[in-house]
Amino acid sequence: MKGILATFFVLFFLSCSNESMDTTTSSDLNGKWIEVKTKTDTLIFKSWESIETMTLNRGKEVRDGQLLPKSGSGPYEYKLATGKISLYWMLSSSYSFNDYNFKRTGDTFVIGNFYNSPSGTTLTFKKIQ
Question: Which domain holds residue 81?
Answer without folding.
Answer: 23-127
